[in-house]
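HUMAN: Please help interpret these tokens:
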Amino acid sequence: MFTRDSKVIALDRVQDVTTRQSLLGRILRYGIVEIDAAGARGAEMFEYCRSPELLRDQVFMLSEQLRRG
């Protein structure tokens, strides 16, 4: 009756993170975050994310830390 879907993207597989915001999204601080991972079937899109630039920067920072060891 009620379902919940989840997907895990390994940080070492992240290739690109893109954000998009409309004018209203910039005013209200929400937007779309799209994460492209190696070996995945297309990018994963997260709509209505709060502070999308902050999420993008955190994903990049963590993936770089992981790659550096």
Remarks:
- The mean pLDDT is 90.
- Residues 38 and 67 are 14 Å apart (CA to CA).
